[in-house]
C-alpha cells in the first residue's frame, strides 16, 4: 500500500477522534503484514490519564482481532503539523513492529517516513526479558 493512501486512511480515522478536552484530534492507520489496515483515533476521558492515543487504539483493535504483525503506521493530527507518536505509543508499537515504519502526514509538508527504531533507539523488547 502506498504511503499516501495510508495517510488518507489516517485522516478518516482522525474524524472520529473523541477529543473534547484537548481539541487535538489524532488519526492512525496501522498496516498489517497481511495487508489489512486498522484505524485508530484518540479517545479522551474526563479523567485525563485514562485517555488512549490513536496509535494504541489501532494496535489494540488489531491484536484483539488476532492480528499481531505490522509493517507500518501512518499518523496525522488536527494541528496540521507532524505528530510523532508519544513515548508510550513508541513502546507499544515496538512490541509488534520493531522493524516497522512510521509515516507522518502534515498539511503543507511532504510525508515523512522513518524507521520506528530511529524513534526508539535501544527499544526494550521481549528478548530483553531473560
Ligand atoms: N495523542 C495521540 O493520540 N497520539 C500521540 O502519540 C500523542 C498524543 C493524543 C492524546 C490526547 O488525546 C491528545 O493527543 C493530546 O495529548
Provide the gyration radius in Å: 14 Å
Number of helices: 4
CATH topology, by name, is Cytidine Deaminase, domain 2
Q: Tell me the number of structural domains.
A: 1
Helix content: 25-40%
Instruction: Let me know the number of strands.
Output: 5
Structural class: alpha+beta
Residue stretches low in confidence (pLDDT < 50, at least 5 long) are: none
Overall mean confidence score, pLDDT: 98
Small molecules bound in the structure, each named once: tetrahydrodeoxyuridine
Tertiary shape: globular
Query: Strand order within the widest sheet?
Result: 2-1-3-4-5
At CATH level 2, the architecture is 3-Layer(aba) Sandwich
Detailed description of the structure:
- With 130 residues, this protein is of the alpha+beta class.
- It has a single domain (3-123), classed as Cytidine Deaminase, domain 2 (3-Layer(aba) Sandwich), CATH 3.40.140.10.
- It contains 4 helices and 5 strands; from the N terminus they run H-E-E-H-E-H-E-E-H.
- The protein has a 5-stranded mixed β-sheet.
- The longest helix is centred in the first third of the chain and has 12 residues, at 3-14.
- The radius of gyration is 14 Å and the shape is globular.
- The structure holds tetrahydrodeoxyuridine (THU).
- Tetrahydrodeoxyuridine is lined by residues 19, 22, 24, 26, 42, 44, 51, 53-55, 85-86, 89.
In short:
The chain is α+β, with helices and mostly antiparallel strands and 130 residues long.
